DNA sequence: TTTATATATGAACAATTGTTCATATGTTAT
DNA sequence: ATAACATATGAACAATTGTTCATATATAAA
């Protein structure tokens, strides 16, 4: 990047492992991909959304079901479902007045499980 | 516009799939586990921390290296490393004045990869 | 000791985020 | 048509969060 004169603007250190930094810089994915990845995990990073995803891995549910299950307002659930929808983690189908949500990605469970494995390791 | 009798407090719907809700309720992990899981993904849900984790999967680096690589302040990186440390995602070793950080969990890469798989689909 | 350097951390601030409230939209029944 | 109901959504608010700034701590060298 800007490691030109042995000194870098944003870092007030003199000692830098130049080769390491350059090596890793060459290995880093594009900023855009890392941004998208962080955005994805941000979606998983809320208790309400985690609960919704967890519930939907068990069964297709309507908004009202989820609100009842989690003892939360319909509005709150609906707002969160929108975020999950935008992240393509859930899909929906409308049947009359009722909208049913379900998991839209087989990897949701796997991401879940990896997280649980980490937590259960200690 | 609120009915007040004989309904679930948090949900203003009349139509609930009672069996579904009860079935899923029986399958849900403990709230505490879901909270911890959300907290874990929250750590992954920041661009700076994702970049740090990504960098450390390639090589052990000191704080200054990371700051230089990401063109960010030492303070900012140090703050984020503390969060990663608390989540047991990175470990460190001190060598004189320099503190070297590295990945502390083999599953970090797998969580990463599952996220990337989701993003690269569709 | 004093100085320099690498890292850590508390406080303040701006930016983001989740919930609530009120209301809008879409569908079914009357 | 109107009413009832399931869901969606904009605005406001409080709570959380990431960065900056200033400073503290830890280690090494002079």
Sequence-ordered SSE layout with sheet pairings:
Two copies of one chain form a homodimer.
Chain A: H1 18-27, H2 31-44, H3 47-56, E1 61-62, H4 63-70, H5 74-86, E2 90-95, E3 98-103, H6 107-119
Helix pairs in contact in A: 3-5, 4-5
Chain B binds a DNA duplex (30 and 30 nucleotides) through α5.
Gyration radius over CA of chain A: 21 Å
Tally of structural domains of chain A: 1
Mean pLDDT of chain A: 88
DSSP strand content of chain A? 5-15%
Which CATH top level class of chain A fits? Mainly Alpha
Question: Any overview of this molecule?
Answer:
Two copies of one chain form a homodimer. Chain A has helices spanning 18-27, 31-44, 47-56, 63-70, 74-86, 107-119, and strands spanning 61-62, 90-95, 98-103. In chain A, strand 2 and strand 3 (98-103) form a beta hairpin. With 122 residues, chain A is mostly helical. Chain A has a three-stranded antiparallel β-sheet. Chain A is built from six helices and three strands. The first copy, chain A, has a single domain (18-120), classed as Winged helix-like DNA-binding domain superfamily/Winged helix DNA-binding domain (Arc Repressor Mutant, subunit A), CATH 1.10.10. The longest helix of chain A is centred in the first third of the chain and has 14 residues, at 31-44. Chain A is 56% helix and 11% strand. In chain A, helix 3 (47-56) packs across helix 5 and helix 4 (63-70) packs across helix 5 (74-86). The interface between A and B is large, with 70 and 66 residues. Chain B binds a DNA duplex (30 and 30 nucleotides) through helix 5.
């Amino acid at each position: 990047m800007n490691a030109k004169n042995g000194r870098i603007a944003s870092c007030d250190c003199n000692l830098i492992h130049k080769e390491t930094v350059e090596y890793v810089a060459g290995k880093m994915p594009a900023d855009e991909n890392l941004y998208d990845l962080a955005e994805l995990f941000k979606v998983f990073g809320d208790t309400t959304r985690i609960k919704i995803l967890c519930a939907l891995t068990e069964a297709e549910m309507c908004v009202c079901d989820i609100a009842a299950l989690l003892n939360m307002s319909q509005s709150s659930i609906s707002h969160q479902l929108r975020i999950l929808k935008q992240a393509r983690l859930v899909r929906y189908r409308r049947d009359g007045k009722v909208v049913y949500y379900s998991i839209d990605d087989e990897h949701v469970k796997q991401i879940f499980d990896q997280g649980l494995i980490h937590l259960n390791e200690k």
